[in-house]
Write a structure and sequence with these properties.
heterotrimer, A alpha+beta, B mainly alpha, C mainly alpha, A: alpha+beta, 3 domains, 5-stranded antiparallel beta sheet, 17 helices, 12 strands, C: mainly alpha, 15 helices, 2 strands, globular
Amino acid sequence: MEQRPEPIRTSVDLNVEKLLQRFADNEHLVVRNIHKEEGSPLASIVYLSVLIDEKRLNQQIIRKISEDLRLQNGSAEDTIMESIHSLGEIKVLPQIDAAVSMISDAGILIFVEGHSKAYGINLPGYETRSIEEPKLELNVRGPREGFTEDLQKNLGLVYRRLKTSELKSKAYLIGKQSQTSLILLYLENKVDGAVLKELKSRIESINMDVVSDSAEIEEWIQDSTFSPFPQILNTERPDRVVSALNRGKIAIMMDGTPIALITPTTFFELLHPSEDQFERFYFANFMRAIRMITLFISLFGPSLYIALTTFHLEMIPTPLMMTFLSTKAGIPFPSYVEAFLMEIAFEVLRDASLRLPRIAGQSVSIVGALIIGEAAVQSGIVSRPMVIVVAMTGIASFTIPSFNTAIALRMLRFPLMLLAATSGVFGLSMGMFAIILHLCSLRSCGVLFLDPVESASWRNSLKKYFLLPVRYRRISRVKKHE
Amino acid sequence: MIVGSICILTICYGIAGGVRLWKRQSKYDAFLLFLFCGFIAGYFIPGIGNAWPTVENIYSFLYERVAKYMFENVLNIKLEAFR
Amino acid sequence: MTSQEKISNKQFGSLVFSFLSGFSTLFLIEAKLIKQDVWMSYLLGITVSIGMLWLFVYAQKQYPHLSMAEIFDELLGKWFAKLALCLYLVYMLETGGAAYRALSFFYTTAILPNTPNIVLMFLIFLCTAYAVYLGLGTLARSIQVILPFFIVAIVIVSFFIVREIDTNPFLPQFQSRASEIVFGGMVTLAFPFGKAIIFGFILSRVKNVKKIFSSTAIPMALSGLYLLAVTYMVFGSLGFNLSHAATFPYFSAAQLVRFGEYMERIEIFVISIWTVFTLFEIIVIQYIFMLVAGHVFRIKETRFFVFPICLLFFAIAHKSFIRMMDLSLYILGIYPISSLLPIVIIPVLIAFLTLVKKPRGAKKSVKINPVG
């Protein structure tokens, strides 16, 4: 049901009454009246005491207004208006609804007798975390600042690094109840207009009551809902946002979360940490090559081992095969059962060490890894090579900086193991092909997800995948695929 | 077992897809899909499946004499296929 | 599914190459028959199939805004066009079924002797159905991902096989009768190269119609070269008798590969990449089948038919060529004749009709250079 917007009246009392109705049963709504003499108030200040900085309100705003009133030389209302305008950034609100959202958004509201408008000033007084080193994306080299839950602070971190008027922003209020502010940031001269338009329309289509984290926004605006792969990069590092903006990407920042979203993202960007750009390029490229190998291991490690030991023993060099066979002797399970057992044990340990408090978590992972692994081998339930393979796979998946991508790879490992157990290398190649097809079909805001590989020339792809020295690094921009 | 489950799967898909298409007002497509799935399911029904037409059967029947004549009399090649 | 996504000429070329090169090296039937003179058969087969595809390209260039199925309608009239397209549908079923069987036979004979055929075929079905569902654009992009790996793998294997070759196996030349070479040419035309004719149906989906002939003919020629190189390596490393006795000669030759004293039998890795490569043939056939069937039966929502169409291929493959021998006899005996109609006769007819019925508004003397 569409409601007609309610205008603000000229009478302060009426307006305050309206607000009191709206905020009925709210213990924290404070109304402070400013009188010149006895009788109806000249002006009223309304706010939620839990949200705003009351000390500042008292010391700056109320004191200023009272002093001005004492020294007044025109009408009382005009004096109040003058003092309000001297306070800094004020918002003129013509309707009750806007006034209500102003109060909810850590603002104070001033009604002045005889004025059919309300004046709002943001005066946030709640506590936020101070800027700390990012918790998830650790770097050896590079800036140490990370985003916090406060949008203003986060925006400051980005604006400080990009001192150009090309940096544009567009603000949205998302969530019918939560009214969370969300900001799109992009560089006008770099961004692809089609992508921006697409993203804007997707954000406008968001229909939720309460938004509590950018993860929900990510889910809503991504291209393929049912893909195991994340299609939007999330980061808590301002430097990463800045370098992404410089490549023509769009950053989405939301109040109340330290995670910014970057879109359009390609698969290979999810595999590289931001640190690559600050390392010497030989080392950075070496690590990029290594990460391709770990990607392969974390996806195919156990399934390849199952396929080889179950179906293609002749492929393994003879001495190695003898070692495998001797360790397998006396183990009651076939390879795939062993692998399933160990993989599930590994996932359980990983999850347990995440959920427990830091200190206990560490001991769980050590106890799990050492004792369970060793005990399983000693008692002859699993073979030693299997423990090595599973551990190697797990560690390989941790080298992938994007947590969601690593999870996707770990999940895909299970169907691949099943395929390898039923039809060996054949099943594996089917699985591999299906994954490649899936990745090729994905898009991120219309941009191809496997971008560098699929771009027109292979030379170009290599250039995009590997880093050149900073001096020769040309910025490659993302383009929407028609 | 695989054959049986594929057969049931095909019929289920035919019915489900047909109903969905019917609801979208494309009745011709729905009918065609249903017919098509029924035909395919025939291949997997034990007994009937072997009598269902395959390209191999039809073309072997149609072209065997032509091929034999072509290869043996025109090109003078003896093939094991025609022994 | 993005049904009308256009693909670039390079992607189209890669698709043609992978389509032809997957299965061509599997049996080497014609090479077993004609031995060292097989290159002439290859040349014959490739020339004719490039020529036939050129005829389709010619027709497509006259009607750049129509798909090939619509061109059939335009030239042959509604019912004759339906008949001709149905012949293509049957041809695709024939080829697709044979490809399904060939791949599963290869695995059950050479690598996974204990796995039932139907399990492998069912996996092929699942994978290809998913690919067809995703559409042509995705397919074209995924070939770009896989092709470099395939080339690298083949080059490595070839390098190690070439070390085994001592003398030129193609000498002495001209030991076969002309009729044998013609027969080999027919087999080559039917089995690896003529299949490319079905690409005629997606010519309208390529971005640059002007360069379309070169982006078709060059990969076909390259695929022929690849086949010839493989034949050379197989004969060189195994000799004629062993090649004739082996069911999968190239696979047997690849088994000779070893790195030093330690790494042996690395062919499985190559085969796993090759398997993915061969799937492209099945996928492309099923995809084009879907397009043509959609046109013939006037299906509006082809998306719903992806699964049943792929299932039809699976069913046909499941019921035909029960034994390996059936397949090779069919490919030698019936296939070269049965495929003449869609590969040669209909394209000639279409080109002739295009020439006679010049489309309205087309320039009078559209001369197209057959070389490119």
